[in-house]
């Protein structure tokens, strides 16, 4: 019987233990799939549809995963496995496609799609972010993945609405140093109404002139902006605890009262996986170095 060099547990015994653990993991996966089937059946019996993506529940599950994580296995590996399990189990009972922003880097978008949604979901290439918005709005439960760039090629968020597609999640959700699938992006879905208790609210804002002031001083993050001869369009993120009137007041206080301000979604605050697992990640509002800010 082979033993470790230091005289520890025999290798055969360790291999047997690994086989037993693998069997328990497989049994647990089958049990989870069965429970998911029961949930889908109960949902259908109640006359409700069962969407593939549940942003609020997914965020809660990921927070629990980060809190209980320990050991040498990388957190990003566990996150990917967990997400693949969730999407595969849900996808057994609800078909959906994932529409990808074709204007973004292909490899980065594919990595992001497979990391977060696994290999069970069908991927559909769209020409640009606006096409993703249109495809999701016209679907019966499809998802959209739009790359988040400081300066957009077009104000694609104008097509978002409560009766069509809305922003429902921001990726990456668990923020880690040197993590895989780290392309910043937003997940779009159809929704009957806005999520009232989202950590972060997302707004479509428009100005007919240059955008003055410093929005970040009022706690507003500019996710993306588009400048044209007619003015500036911006996609804003701010605390979901604030009302639309509060957000308008914050813009006014920054010297940037918009001509249009409407809520177009929200998302759970990302988790900082590098520090205290209970901390949420608070990105610095504004733009990356080298990008022109729409403020003068």
Question: Ranges with pLDDT <50 over ≥5 residues?
Answer: 283-292
The biggest sheet, with number of strands, parallel, antiparallel or mixed sense and barrel status, is:
5 strands, mixed
SS element count, helices: 6
Assess the beta-strand content as a share of residues: 15-25%
Main sheet: strand order: 2-1-3-6-4
Shape label = globular
Topology as H/E string?
HHHEHEHEEEEEEEHEE
- The secondary-structure class comes to alpha/beta
What's the gyration radius in Å?
22 Å
* Cα-to-Cα separation, first versus last residue: 75 Å
Oligomer: single chain
Mean pLDDT: 86
Please give the share of residues in helix: 25-40%
Into how many domains do the coordinates divide? 1
Tell me the total number of β-strands.
Answer: 11
InterPro entries: Chorismate_II_sf, CM_dom_sf, CM_II_prokaryot
GO molecular function: chorismate mutase activity
EC number: 5.4.99.5
Enzyme class: isomerase
What is this entry, summarized?
One of its GO terms (molecular function) is chorismate mutase activity. The chain has 296 residues and is an alpha/beta fold.
